[in-house]
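Bumping with the actual sequence this time:
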Amino acid sequence: MRYTSAIAMQECPRCRIVTTDLASTCEGCQFDFRNPATEFLYASFWDRLKALWLDAMVLTIPVLLLNLLGLRSKSTPFQIAAASIVLLYFAYMESSRWQGTCGKILVGLRVTDCEVRRISFPRALGRNLGRILSGILGIGYIAMLFTQRKQTLHDMLASCMVLRAA
């Protein structure tokens, strides 16, 4: 009789190499799976600002296309369509396997939950809706100056953090 055991696999959050669940460190970059939180650098305000600027450049294209389709920038349908595109872009990209928008990827950032796992689409959607609260007088963004993990208000509401590649 032949017995087989299922071995769970884990992906290194730093270099993306897949190893067995039994490994305590990554073969590629020596990442310590037993204590993942100490291995990461949290994204700074300036890193996030650079990523947001790059994302604004990317999002200019669909907004211009809406304008070409005949929707005027001051009309309500245009504003609803543009806000939906922006919200869905951020939520989809942050919950995807890349864990970040085009801007975040180029800057070397990624969005994770507090256990350093990929976030779900509903969590990413809630996180990005929370940006509205963070944007009120910028108070939500100022919060990152006083938190250990450099989390903004919308990060804390969604139990997320933004990490920088080591």
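The tokens above came from a reply further down the thread. The two ends are 47 Å apart (CA to CA).
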